[in-house]
Amino acid sequence: MTFQAMLTLGVIVAVFAGLQLRSSATDLVFMAALAFVTLAGIITPEQALAGFANPAVVMVGAMLVIGTGMRSTGALDWVGHQLLGKAQTDRAAVWRLTIWVTTLSAFVNNTTLVAMLVPVLIHWCRRTNVSPSKLMIPLSYLAVLGGLCTLIGTSTNVTVNGLLTAESRKAIHDEATREQLRPMTFLEIGYVGIPCAVIGGLYLALVGRRMLPNRTELLEKLGDERREYLVEMTVQQECRMIGRSVQEAGLRQLPGLFLIEIDRGGDLIAPVSPDDVLHCGDRLIFTGVVSTIIDLEKIPGLVPAADITYEVSPHQRSRRHLTEAVLSTSSPLVGQTIKEANFRQLYNAAVVAVHRNGQRVTTKIGDIELQPGDTLLLQTRQHFAEAFRNHPDFFLVSSVEGSEHGRHDKAWLAFTLLGLLVMLLSLGSMLVAVLGPLDHSVLAPVGKLLNSTAFLAIAPIMVGVLMVVTRCLTISEARSSINLEILLTIAAGVGLGQAMENSGLAKVIAGWLMSVSGWLPDDAGLAKAYLLLVLIHVSTLLVTELLSNNAAATLMFPLGVALAIQAGVSPRPFIMSICIAASASFITPIGYQTNLMVMGPGGYKPSDFARVGIPLTIVVTIVALVVIPMAWPF
Predict the structure, then answer these.
(1) What is the pLDDT of residue 145?
(2) Any domain includes 254
(3) Which residue range(s) make up the domain with 452?
(4) Does one domain contain both 572 and 551?
């Protein structure tokens, strides 16, 4: 081993150690390592910067913007609420998650999907009295499994595809090797990803869910021992609840919320029966807690009736959110009813609900005579809390988390744009599948463009820009959605992979792995290649549990290529194995970001991930190692 190889190995070990000590500083650790190998002369400055121009970095950034657009329009929120349907048990819920989360995650970045679905599942658990610990790990694992099915399902696939592009352009490879290192098509990884997702999903639904803890104390944390408000909602013409019974509309199982009566043109319906059908113009009077009122207020076509000037336009509502304010003794509102108070003119805010001294107020909300100490739930502008925090009219003013409105009127457009992206990215693969090789076809230029790595990066950029232009999300939301930690890690990882190659470290480690297969006879070519595939797969599994999916992919990629070339076999099965193994992180919470995202809401311990994840890892590994040599022969 040369001095540079030893130095590079030391840097890689330092990266491992640094990420164990500072798991939240992945980008910093990788950037520091990149700077070191550059200053040490192992790679040139041009090679160090090449990762930042890698199409994978651009594509991941664009996909993050698209995911935010899907979330901010309420498109993913709508999907989430449809996802569980009428499920009332954890068994039914896991089965529905298995079908829908796996499918959605193939086309929506799995991190974005999990971020959106966590509060939806928490809400469902609160309503059905099921512990979140029975659903959160399946949510994360199913999102990971679904991400294995397409090129855009997970950033790992995009990262590896970018590395393939860079590797295929190197002059050191002959034409046959370059062909094996060609970029992936949109659905190519699905040859192995779909079987892994199907069998892994069945394991979770049939066996894995039984191994999950049932932490009933989490249900107590979800209990709503908070202020109970009176709120009156009007059913507008576009509301999807019209024509449905109270039971069918889902208004009987809302946690911490009770439908007191329905006012239909002056006729009162009380008590309310589950079979009462909702009509346009109905005024629904509820008592309940803030968290559920937020859920009510986000339903398109259901708006608070306390203020006739309440913002009902989706464009206007997206600029407002909920704030709680406690009336002071000097407030000019004291002694007036909400109808008389002219709250909009005084504060540019609308009253949504009222709470008084821990008691349930039974008066109609518009007729409540306000008193000092009353807590009002208000629809306000973004900076209301800052402007009125020290105002003498209020004792206390605070924003309500999670009350921001999405542009629900743009949800259909967000779905359309996502469909456009999927169509663009899969069109090249579909042309080849239908027409065969396009080399001598009049469509050859089109096929070459659609299957190029540049197009795989440009298409998401185009769709992301369209989401901003069509106001599915704002420019500031688009900017804030771009996770620099992920992008810097990928870019710096490309440079570290180059350092492993330049220093000869990749060849040295490949030689060590080759020696493991030395006991096989020389004529056992396929057996030796298969053993090396098993070694690279297991090694990547270990690395991804210690680091992260993108870090593992960037570090193991050059090793997989070097190992295949040294063994005289195709590198493509090794690359696909790294792709699957780097994402299939089910044993520890730190191996994949979605595992960390569900750890807190599920109340999990690290041992919970291992208990469910070790058998799942074995199942997915067996499926992958059986399918990969069949789909991509040595």
Answers:
(1) 93
(2) yes
(3) 411-476
(4) yes
Q: pLDDT tens digit string along 505-542?
A: 767 776 676 676 666 555 556 788 888 899 889 888 88
| Closest listed residue to residue 113, CA positions, set 101, 99, 121, 122 | 101
pLDDT score of 319:
52
- Using alpha carbons, select from 563, 553, 550, 543 the residue that is nearest to residue 634: 563
The token duo for 123 is 């809400």
Domain annotation covers residue 220: no
Distance CA 595, CA 198 (A): 20
Max avg pLDDT among 295-309, 412-426, 466-480: 466-480
Q: Are residues 514 and 625 in the same domain?
A: yes
Q: What is the reported pTM? A: 0.61
Among 476, 511, 529, the domain-final residue is 476
Q: Are strands 228-235 and 350-355 parallel, antiparallel or unpaired?
A: antiparallel
117 and 262 inside one domain: no
Domain limit, last residue, from 435, 452, 476: 476
Q: Look up residue 205 and give its two tokens.
A: 């639904």
Number of domains in the chain: 3
Closest by CA to 428, choosing from 464, 471, 459, is 459
Q: Judge if 461 and 490 occupy the same domain.
A: no
* Average pLDDT, rounded, for the chain: 78
Cis? peptide before 606, omega within 30° of 0 = no
Q: What is the CATH classification number for the domain harbouring 361?
A: 3.30.70.1450
Secondary element (H or E) of residue 459: helix 453-469
- Do 116 and 265 reside in the same domain of the chain? no
Residues 389 and 268 in one domain: yes
Residues 457 and 381 in one domain: no
| pLDDT at residue 393 in the model | 80
Backbone φ and ψ for 396, nearest 5 degrees, come out as: -150, 140
**Amino acid of residue 312:** V
Residue 224, token pair as written in the block: 């709503």
As a whole number of angstroms, the distance between CA 620 and CA 587 comes to 12
Q: How far apart are CA 604 and CA 205, in angstroms?
A: 19
**Which pair of structure tokens corresponds to residue 36?**
């070191």
Residue carrying the six token digits 């804030």: 480
The angle at the Cα of 538, spanning 521 to 24, to the nearest 5 degrees, equals 150
Amino acid at 209: R
Three-state DSSP at 376 gives strand
Helices (H) and strands (E) in the chain, counts: 27, 9
Residue 413 pLDDT more than 50? yes
* DSSP string for 189-213: THHHHHHHHHHHHHHHHHTGGGGS-
Q: What is the CA radius of gyration of the chain?
A: 28
Same domain, 191 and 256: no
